[in-house]
Design a protein that fits this description.
- The protein has a domain of 91 residues.
- It is 0% helix and 61% strand.
- The strands form three sheets. The chain has a nine-stranded antiparallel β-sheet with strand order 2-3-6-7-8-9-10-11-12, with no helix packed on it. It has a three-stranded antiparallel β-sheet with strand order 1-4-5, with no helix packed on it.
- A hairpin with a 2-residue loop joins strand 2 and strand 3.
Length: 180
């Protein structure tokens, strides 16, 4: 927001997941508190964190010669205050199509869809992004590990800095290792 490096903290994170059936998952995630200490522009401040609501539904199970197909919908409800530099106070939503296919000892997962983000510095404006992701999961003798991930956001003209989490990195057994 200010262009200066800053350090912030967030937590605890509360996540509730409910699966009313084998093909539906609904989750709520809330970062209870966010803050920063001794910020050169805003001082020491804290506020409530944002709330994320997501739903995932599988339309078609994986079968011989065709992948599993589903959809994921999500909305991030702004709770943090823009005025004290803790967050953009902007609504964000996404809708994506998901596909997964096992091929031998590897499972490929892919998603693509639309992400809409309210513009932080321009009232009544929004940014539309292509949200995408690819993952190659490798099955070992006792567990499945993710062995490669690529995800991100793409916008047509003069895109703002995309949300964190985009890029490509190797990932093993749930731990992420950013790559250069």
């Amino acid at each position: 927001m200010t262009g200066r490096p800053r350090e912030s903290w967030a937590g605890p994170v509360l996540r509730l997941v409910h699966s009313p059936s084998d093909s539906v998952e609904i989750d709520l995630e809330w970062t209870a508190r966010v803050g920063q200490r001794d910020d050169p522009d805003f001082g020491s401040v804290s506020d409530w964190g944002d709330v994320a609501l997501r739903a995932k539904v599988r339309f078609v199970d994986e079968g011989r010669g065709h992948p599993a197909i589903g959809a994921r919908f999500g909305v991030l409800l702004p709770e943090t205050s823009f005025g004290n530099g803790l967050g953009p106070n902007a609504l964000r939503m996404s809708a994506q199509i998901l596909a997964s296919q096992a091929i031998g000892g590897v499972t490929l997962h892919g998603n693509a869809g639309l992400a809409l983000h309210d513009e932080v510095f321009r009232t009544h404006e929004q940014r539309d992004f292509l949200a995408y992701g690819l993952e190659k999961g490798c099955r070992g003798p006792t567990r499945t590990a993710s062995c490669g991930v690529a995800c991100g956001w793409d916008a047509a003209a003069s895109a703002p800095t995309p949300p964190s989490g985009e890029g490509s990195w190797p990932r093993m057994a749930g731990g992420a290792l950013p790559s250069a």
